[in-house]
Structures are given as structure tokens and as C-alpha cells.
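Encode chain A's predicted structure.
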Amino acid sequence: MTVFDGDVLRNIKAVRDIKPLCDDLGETDADFQVGDAVAAKGDSVVGDLLTRPFKYGTAVAYPFIKDIWQHTRFSDGTEFGVWYGSLELETTIYESVYHWRRFVVNSFPKERQVVGERIVFKALCQGILVSLLDKETVAPELLHPSDYSFSNAVGKYMRDQNQNGLLVKSARCSGINAAIFTEKVLSNVRDHFFLSYIFSPADGGPVRVERARGEQILAVQ
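Encoded structure for chain A:
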């Protein structure tokens, strides 16, 4: 167990050119931040950033389908959802690029260059988490790159025991991920910045990651 009190980064699909949620209620960034904070307390777009992942696998469950889209490392997608974040920006990129690239290869013509827009935001996590850091040395299947059967069982056990969440090494890089099972430990959503993922399936090269358009910060094979 570890007492965690800090920011966790979450990397999700987004549109880069959007207005602040409360742009018609204020004139400055400070006004917008206050509006977003108030909205986050209710059923809103901002509040959804903390709550929506927990609904995956619970609104509609398909136990007879082997590979449903809600299936993640610590949930089979049929009983509960998990809120995933990372402690480092690079980890959020490696994790999300892995899944995004697979989606592009399966969904788009190979001759087409595909651009995916993302937003990285911060959320404050405060609570007691179970630390599985270094446990992969005795249970390497915890970080299997594609077979989640063992980690799904771990996630179900943790949730059945009413644990808040866990910390675990990333299977995509050397960073650390947080898998959260309850929204009560999350608060204070803040936008961080946008990213663009650029990939050409035909050449099979790396995914180029840009912060500002034309400003590459990373290339992930």
C-alpha cells in the first residue's frame, strides 16, 4: 500500500481547436478555470473526464464476445471500467500510441496518412493505492504485451476488495501507470496541452508525436 497525493496524466482523443467550456461566462483564463471547476462538480463535459471511464463495461456488457472494445489491462470490459493515467508524459504517449496505431492499421487505407489529435490533462489523485511496482519480476504476466487474462484477474480482485486503485509499471516503456477503480480519489481536472499523432500505415514507420504543429517531440515505433 502507498499513500498517493499527486497529479496523474491522462491522454485521450480530443479536438485541438476548441473553445473553453465556459467561454461565454467570462473573459480571462482565470474566469474559464473557475467555470470549469464548478462544472466539474456536476454532470458535465469536465466531470465526464473523471467519471466516464468507470462506465465502460457497465452500461452494456457482452460476455459472449471475446474481444470487445472496453477490454483493458485490468478489466475484461464486462463488469466495471478503469480510469487509466500515467505519472510521466512520455508514458502516456507510449501507452496511447500503442493502441492508436493498432486502431489505425485496422481501420484506415494503408496509403493514407492519418493524424490523430489528443489532449493530455492532469487530475489530482489522493488516496491509498496498492503498489505493484517491481511485482513483474515475480509475475511477468502482469505486463504481458497482449494477453490481459492475468492482469484482468488482478483488477477484478482489487475492485472486489474495494481498493481505490493501483500503481504498476508500464508494459510499453519504463514509466509508471495508475489504474483507478473509484472516482472518489480523483479531482481537480486541469488541461495540460494538446498532441498530434501522425502515422502512415503504408511505410510502417514510427508514429510522429507533435506538440505544436510541425514541432516533433517524439517518434514511437
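Residues 89-107 form the longest helix (19 residues).
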